[in-house]
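Backbone-to-sequence.
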C-alpha cells in the first residue's frame, strides 16, 4: 500500500457568529484556503486531482456542490473536480480519510481535503428546520425513532448523559472550559497559530477594513466565576454555552500527496498518515464513540495510547474530551495543547480539517512524533486519525 503524506495544511482564524467572517460567502471562504495551499506548496493547481470538502448544513449558500463552487471562486482551474462529504461534525476529517485512501490506493497522487461552514449564513440544523417548515418531514422515520425509543436525537441530551455516565460535575466541565481558553490565549500570544492561519480581509459593522488573522472566540479574561454564572442548557444539568463549543464560521484545507507527487512537484512532507478508522455506536448517547474508536484505531495500528504524543479531541462539549481522558486513562497534558473548540470555535464541517491542521502544526512546534485526532459525530459516530510527523 502506498504512503500518503500531508504536505500543506491551513485554516482561517475562527469567526464568531455574526462576527468577523459574517460577510464572507462560504464558497469564497473555501476558495481562500484552496488558494493558500497552492501558494504555499508552489504546486501547479492543474495537478490537483480532486477536492473533497466537508460541510454539515448543505443548503442555501452551502448547497449545489459547494466544493465545485469553492473551486470556481478560487484560482484552481475548472478542470479540478470537487465533491462533498457529510459525516456531521466529522465531515472534513472524513474528507481527509477519503483523500488519504485515494492516495494510498494508488488511484490518485494529489488530493485536497477541505471543510467549510458559515454558521452565520447557514445556521446549524438549517436543512432539518427548513425541510420541516416546507412540509417535507423529519429526517427520522417512525421506524428509526421506535427502534431507539426516542422522539428525537439530541446532542445536548447526549452531552448530559456523558457527564452522568462518567461521573463528571458542573465544576469539572467549567474547569476544562476555562483551561481551553487559557491554552488558546497562550498559543495565540506566543504565535503558535501563525503558521497555520490564512489571513482574510474583512469589513466590520462600521465599515472599517481590517485583517482577520486571530481566532475571535478566545476569552482572554475568562474566569471560573464567569463560567459558573452561565445557565445550564437543561434544567438541573451540567452543560452550558460556556462549557460547550462556540458557534463559528471558518474553513480549512489539507493537501495530501503520494511519494511520487512529493518527488515530482518538489513538495515538503509534514506528516505521514499512519492509521485511519471510523467507528459507530449508540445514536442516543451519540457522543461517546471517540472512546471505543480510539481503542480500535490503536489496536489496528499496533500501538498503545502512551505511544501518542499529542491528542486533538474535539471539544464539542466539555464532557466529551473529559470522558475520553477518563475512560482511556489518557495524559491530560497531551490533550488539545493549543486549546480547543470551546475557545476557538467549532465550524462544524470545517472542524475536522481545522483540527488536523492544528495537530500537524503542534507536532512540529513541539518536536513530537505521533498525533491522534478524533471527534464525536451526530448519529453516534467518530473518526480517528493517527499521523506521524516527518
Amino acid at each position: 500500500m502506498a504512503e500518503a503524506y500531508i504536505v500543506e495544511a491551513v485554516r482561517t482564524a475562527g469567526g464568531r457568529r455574526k462576527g468577523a467572517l459574517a460577510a464572507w460567502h462560504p464558497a469564497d471562504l473555501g476558495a481562500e484556503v484552496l488558494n493558500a495551499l497552492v501558494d504555499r506548496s508552489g504546486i501547479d493547481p492543474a495537478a490537483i486531482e480532486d477536492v473533497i470538502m466537508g460541510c454539515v448544513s448543505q443548503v442555501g449558500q452551502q448547497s449545489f456542490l459547494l466544493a465545485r463552487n469553492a473551486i470556481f471562486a478560487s484560482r484552481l482551474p475548472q478542470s479540478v473536480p470537487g465533491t462533498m462529504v457529510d459525516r456531521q461534525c466529522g465531515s472534513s476529517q472524513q474528507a481527509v480519510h477519503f483523500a488519504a485512501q485515494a492516495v494510498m490506493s494508488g488511484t490518485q497522487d494529489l488530493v485536497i481535503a477541505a471543510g467549510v461552514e458559515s454558521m452565520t449564513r447557514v445556521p446549524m440544523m438549517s436543512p432539518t428546520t427548513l425541510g420541516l417548515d416546507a412540509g417535507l418531514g423529519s429526517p427520522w422515520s417512525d421506524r428509526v425513532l421506535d427502534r431507539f425509543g426516542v422522539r428525537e436525537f439530541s446532542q445536548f441530551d447526549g452531552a448530559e448523559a456523558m457527564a452522568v455516565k462518567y461521573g463528571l460535575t458542573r465544576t469539572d466541565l467549567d474547569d476544562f472550559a476555562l483551561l481551553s481558553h487559557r491554552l488558546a490565549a497562550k498559543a495565540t500570544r506566543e504565535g503558535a497559530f501563525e503558521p497555520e492561519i490564512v489571513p482574510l480581509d474583512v469589513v466590520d459593522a462600521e465599515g472599517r477594513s481590517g485583517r482577520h488573522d486571530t481566532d475571535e472566540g478566545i476569552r482572554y479574561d475568562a474566569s471560573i466565576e464567569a463560567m459558573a454564572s452561565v445557565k445550564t442548557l437543561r434544567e438541573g444539568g451540567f452543560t452550558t454555552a460556556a462549557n460547550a463549543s462556540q458557534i463559528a464560521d471558518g474553513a480549512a484545507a489539507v493537501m495530501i500527496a503520494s511519494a511520487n507527487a512529493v518527488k515530482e512537484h518538489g513538495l515538503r512532507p509534514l506528516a505521514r498518515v499512519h492509521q485511519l478508522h471510523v467507528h459507530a455506536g449508540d445514536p442516543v448517547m451519540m457522543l461517546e464513540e471517540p472512546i471505543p474508536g480510539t481503542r480500535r484505531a490503536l489496536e489496528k495500528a499496533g500501538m498503545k495510547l502512551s505511544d501518542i504524543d499529542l491528542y486533538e479531541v474535539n471539544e464539542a462539549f466539555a464532557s466529551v474530551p473529559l470522558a475520553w481522558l477518563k475512560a482511556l486513562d489518557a495524559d491530560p497534558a497531551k490533550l488539545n495543547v493549543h486549546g480547543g473548540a470551546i475557545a476557538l470555535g467549532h465550524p462544524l464541517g470545517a472542524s475536522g480539517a481545522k483540527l488536523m491542521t492544528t495537530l500537524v502544526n503542534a507536532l512540529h512546534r513541539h518536536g513530537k512524533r505521533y498525533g491522534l485526532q478524533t471527534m464525536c459525530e451526530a448519529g453516534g459516530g467518530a473518526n480517528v486519525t493517527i499521523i506521524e510527523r516527518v
